[in-house]
Design a protein that fits this description.
two-stranded antiparallel ribbon, 2 domains, alpha/beta, Rossmann fold, binds iron/sulfur cluster, globular, Cytochrome-c3 Hydrogenase, Chain A, domain 2, about 10% strand
Amino acid sequence: METRGGSVLPAKDHDYLMEIYSHYREWLKNGAPAPPWKPPVIWLECNACSGDKIAFMNSQDPNLGEVLYRYIDVRFDNALVAAEGHQALEALLETAATHAGQFYLFVEGAIPLRDEGLYAIVAELNGERLTARDIITSIGSKAGYVIAAGTCASFGGPSAAYPNPSGSVGVRDVVQRPVINVSGCPNNPDWIMGTLFHLLFYGEPEVDEDGRPLLFYQYTVHRHCQRRSYFDRDEFADQLGDIECMFQLGCVGPRTPSDCPYRQWNGYVNWPVRANTPCIGCTTVGFPDSSMPFFVPLPEKQRPGPPVPLPGEPTLPQSANDGEKASQVEQAPSNGPPPMMNDQKG
Ligand code: SF4
Ligand code: SF4
């Protein structure tokens, strides 16, 4: 692998980071000006717990106030704008109509499709219910970018967990266009804010096969985990609190793309494995079903049941682990922990 100047990164990644770094220095030197304009933003919350919005609001650098004041113009959101009811809906529709191709559409939460989308009603118009499905179908194609905030919006996540009574799916299954999937349950504040700023200053980030920005999801948790040396020596924790690798306690870090081990959480102070709990794979396509039961080792995990087809869809395979829409990196190995555990990237 070609590297640069003693860096552990491949030359391509090193050059890319250097390019960003020089832009950043230039940007600071010039007094960190705002972009030439503040793109209108619509943040639509569907079947969600608000965790991804809270993560966005918890960003430290830049903080939320700075972002709202200098960089984006939030036109519709259920927490960040003062307008309510029909005024809020009018702002959404007006933004989509007058800023087609320019506005950023953030979607948080999965989109329920069963019963005509009845399980996520965003607004009413002339006495008609507007569901999340209706709104995303109608304005998704007009957005400059569509960003799925969190695993529910990206891939269905907990909202689509077995038996998925609302028929929830990720945004990419509703719109016919590329979606940037900032997965995580919730997403780390840096992942969503970093994606926003990449869009603002450099355009679309490079993404993996499931639409996740490589900036944050290029390597598995396992690659940089502080307990990796224990894994490599086959030294495994018997119970929570032991200092060894937690693979036998259900850790799915080997197939989970994220930079948690060095980015960390809660103001960069800690992350799950350092805090003695296994990675449960919250950024993956099949989460949470493919991580279940959480505390059994990867080869023994079993999905709780077959995917439930939506009305009109053919019956799906009956085997508990058949018919999944998981990428290769998310497939559980068939037996034992082999040395690299599908960790092709790590
Ligand atoms: S299996 Fe989990 S605890 Fe063990 S090294 Fe990998 S990420 Fe860390
Ligand atoms: S350690 Fe794993 S489950 Fe925990 S936040 Fe990171 S990716 Fe998600």
